[in-house]
Please model this.
Amino acid sequence: MHLPDYKEARTRDRRDYHRVDFSFDSEIKNKYAGKTFYLKTYGCQMNEHDSETITALLISLGFSAVLDYHDADLILLNTCSIRENAHNKAFGMLGRIKHLKQQKPDLLVGICGCMAQEASVVDDILKNYRWVNFVFGTHNMYQLPNIIDKAIEEQKQQIEVFSREGDLVEGLPVVRTNSYKAYVNIIYGCDKFCTYCIVPYTRGRERSRAKEDILKEIDELIQDGYQEVTLLGQNVNAYGKDLYSDYTLANLLEEIAKKGLPRIRFMTSHPWDFTDQMIEVIAKYDNIMPSIHLPVQSGSSKILKLMGRRYTREEYLKLFHKIKDTIPKVSVSTDIIVGFPGESEEDFQETLSLVHECQYDNAYTFIFSKREGTPACKLKDFVSEEEKEERLHRLNEVVNYYFLENNKRLEGTVLPVLVEGFSSKKEDMYFGYSDTNKLINFTANSKIQVGEIVPVKITSAKTWSLDGELVE
Ligand code: 5AD
Ligand code: SF4
Model:
């Protein structure tokens, strides 16, 4: 048994990471043929992408996927720790699964992802969820086949969570959700330790993948006809720093762009490491999408300091305007937290005024959530819950106003759209995303294929989407 430990998870040293190739234990290949699994994913793109690997590992064991958890022989929750409501959702699901397990005692239940890295969660599972069959963490996903095998053979709870990241495992299998857009990890972990954030504890220190491994994966995706790749990392801008003396995200982006892949995206960027060279490369290549997620978190320098964000309001704005002025038609989105401990009405007003200045195309807004073990958890919090809700509401009104204003400016223009399928909300309409990452619902008389990039004329703007028609 390996239990999570935050003290250990916090430590960062210059250990060398070994690149190791994954190999599947051939003895257990297809051992569970005929069995079914249901995998529920919470949280960010990193988790979504991990679930693509988990799916592939389960399929290698012989499991096949089902859409309803009632039909599954194995239920696995890939969890998220970022805010308390993510926790609550996973525990709510566990409550429902408990009922099912009472009717189906042979049902296997597993928990993985970021919550598995939290000592308090695992403690709770050990005490109150003895019926959960296995738990594994973000650093040892590759061991899943053996953990399941052991849980079944030994008929006892398996807790296998490493607090310190291990080697960089390459060659893990993946079953991609889409055949036209793909996620590619470029860096794991985060060393920034923003005071509110649990990620540096659950995902470990920054570890870049070797550029050769990334480029090989991109080549394969191009060969398979993929149109869009999103380079993933908690902080992609730190790419290469732990591995190379002179090879950065700017170099990687340029090398990938030259391969001619139609669409390249990357996320998430911390404003701290956003270099001029990166801005130049993004501006230079048409296939690097003009869409940047640049989390600000707060418009108050005082709060930014308490958050440990490493930039002031002024420094952020300088970067923001440089990006806007240099990259043609770029759209910028952000993340904002309200109600951080010590946030006064004046501080909040500074956030509102920053939003008025930046006029974001999209923004994810959150109420500060205390995460056990993070420095901000210990800060005195004077803002009442009602006040936090109120601030969120006022902030949302302002951000929504600009989403619509920005969208209205696009009426009458033609945007390139990567077709994703039929719109779920609007009959007979396709949907897809523009280069600037706007959701577009559109009509088309001629037949078009999912995965094609087509020109769409924008006919009307909404707050969160645009309507249009195919230019035929
Ligand atoms: N409370 C609220 N929001 C948080 N985020 C990260 N940690 C917290 C927290 N403790 C938000 C940040 C980050 C996004 C992924 O989630 O805005 O950019
Ligand atoms: Fe969390 Fe900050 Fe790292 Fe983003 S940069 S994952 S907010 S610690």
Summary: The longest helix spans residues 385-408. The longest strand covers residues 414-422.
